[in-house]
Amino acid sequence: MVNVLPFMGYHGSAGREGMSEMGLGMAIAASMVVMTMFQEFLLKHLQGYLQRLFRKLFKTLDPNVQIRFTDDDSGGPKNYEAYTVVETYLSVKCSDQAPRLKANAVRDVKNPVLCIDVGEGVADEFKGVTVKWQLGEDKEQSEMFRGSRKNRYYTLTFPKRNREIVVGEYLRHVMEEGKALIARNRQLKLYSNSSSEHGASWRYIMDFDHPAKFDTLAMEKEKKEEIIDDLFRFSTSREYYRKIGKPWKRGYLLYGPPGTGKSTMIAAMANLLSYDVYDLELSAVLSNANLKRLINKIPCNSILVIEDIDCSSKITKQREKNNQGETEKIIETVTLSGLLNCIDGLFSANDGGRLMVFTTNHVELLDSALLRRGRMDKHIEMPHCGFEAFKILAKNYLGIEDHELFAKIEGLLKESFITPADVAENLIARGNGEDSGEECLKKLIQVLEKKEEEEMGDVISD
Ligand SMILES: Nc1ncnc2c1ncn2[C@@H]1O[C@H](COP(=O)(O)OP(=O)(O)OP(=O)(O)O)[C@@H](O)[C@H]1O
C-alpha cells in the first residue's frame, strides 16, 4: 500500500494534476462561455439601458418639441383631415421655398395641392416664432389600410420655449387657414329636389361650374360692394352669431324683372363664398313635412335657393282634378306657414353658415310675413340696365371700356327700359368676331331707339 501509494500517489498525483488541469480547463471554458453569455446578456441590457438613458437625457436636453400629423386614417378620419389641412396650408409656404414640389389631388378640391417631397422641409414664421415642417414616410407599410402605400406624416418642430404660442395659437391658425384654403378651392356642387321622388330628398345634379363673378355682374359699383361686404361679413361671423345666440343663417330676396341677373347673382354669391347650391323646387314638394325634412338636410356652407317664389309656392291646398274636371283627391302641398316655419327653424350649427336666397319677378305678390327681417334680411332690387351696368357688359363682351358712342347710349338708357340680359344678347350676337365692337354698339343704339319709340307709343296710346 505504502509502495503502491507513492506510486499510486505519484501516478495518482499526476492523474489528479492532469484531472485538475482538465477540470480547470473546463471550468475556464465554462466560465468563458458564461462570461461571454453574461457579457452578451449584460451588454444587450446595458446597451438598451444606456440607449434609454441617453434618449431620456437627450429629451431633457433637446430644446425642441415635435408634433406629428399622419395621413394614416386607421386612427380615424379626423387624422387624415388634419393631415390634409396641414398639407393645404403648407402648399402656399412651400411653393416659394422647396426646390422640388409634388402636386397632390385632394378630395373635393378643384386644383391640385402642391406639397414638398419626402425628407424635405419648409419653414414658417408666426408671431416671431420660427417653426419647421418636414414630410416623412413610415418604413413599415400598413397593408391593411393602405395596400402598398406607405404612411406619410408631417412633423412640426419648434423650440420648447414657444410651446404655448405654437400649440395654443399657431396650430389654430394653421387649421383655420388650411380649411379656408380648401373651402376657397372647393369644387362646388349643385343639388336639387326636383328629380327625386316626391321632391322629398336632395339629389346631386352636377358640379357647379358657373363662371359668374361679382366682377362681371352688371350692377352699380356701390350696390355691388355693399352686397359683397355683407356676404363676407356674414361668412366670417361665426363668433358673432354664437355670441348673440342665433343660428348662423341669412336670407336674401332678389327681385326684379326677368333677365336682370337674379340667377347670375346667386351663382356669383356661391362662387364668392365657395358654398354649394341647393336649388329647391317648391312645386315638387308634396307636403310641409317633406319641406322640413329637406331644409333640415342642408349642410352648412350652402345656399338654399328658391327661385320664383311667387309662382312656385302653392300656399293653399290644391285639388287635383280628374278628366271630367271633378275633384278626385286633395293633394297636401306646401303652405305659407309651413314654409315660414321651415325658414325660422333652419338650424345652423356653428360649423358654418347657411344662406337662403329667394327670387321673384313680382315682389308685390309676396306675403309680408315672408319678407320681414330675420327671414329675408336683405332685399336686393335687380333693376333694368343702367349706364354703369352697361359699361360692365361692354367690357365683358367687347373688351371696350370707353367709346365715343357711350354718351349716346347713356342718354338712351335713361329713356328706355332694357334688361342686362337683352343688352348682353345684343353685344354677344355681334361680338363673336363677325362685327367690330363699334358695330355692336351701333346695333345696340338702334335697339334702344326702337324701344324708346315703342315706349313713347305706349305712353301716347295710354
Ligand atoms: N346683371 C347682370 N350682369 C351680367 N349678366 C347678366 C345680368 N343680368 C342678366 N345677365 C345675362 O343674362 C342672362 C340671363 O340672366 P339671369 O338668368 O341671371 O336673369 P334672371 O333675373 O334670373 O331671369 P329670370 O327672372 O327669368 O330667371 C345671364 O345668363 C347673363 O348672361
Fold and architecture overview:
It is a single chain. The protein has 462 residues and is α/β, with parallel strands linked by helices. The protein folds into three domains: 64-184, no CATH class; 189-381, Rossmann fold (3-Layer(aba) Sandwich); 387-461, no CATH class. It is 48% helix and 19% strand. It contains 15 helices and 15 strands. The strands form four sheets. The chain has a seven-stranded mixed beta sheet with strand order 8-7-10-11-14-9-15. A four-stranded antiparallel beta sheet has the order 1-6-5-4. A two-stranded antiparallel sheet has the order 2-3. A hairpin with an 8-residue loop joins β2 and β3. The longest helix has 58 residues, at 4-61. The protein starts with a helix and ends with a helix. Residues 1-14, 315-322 and 327-331 have low confidence and may be disordered. The structure holds adenosine-5'-triphosphate. Adenosine-5'-triphosphate is lined by residues 217-219, 258-264, 361, 382, 420-421, 424.
Short note summarizing the structure:
It contains 15 helices and 15 strands. By secondary structure, the protein is an alpha/beta fold.
Write the layout of secondary structure elements.
Layout: H1 4-61, E1 64-70, H2 77-94, E2 101-104, E3 113-116, E4 121-126, E5 129-141, H3 143-146, E6 150-159, H4 163-184, E7 189-192, E8 203-207, H5 221-235, H6 238-244, E9 249-255, H7 262-273, E10 276-279, H8 288-296, E11 302-306, H9 309-312, E12 318-321, E13 327-331, H10 336-345, E14 354-360, H11 368-371, E15 378-381, H12 387-398, H13 406-415, H14 420-430, H15 437-461
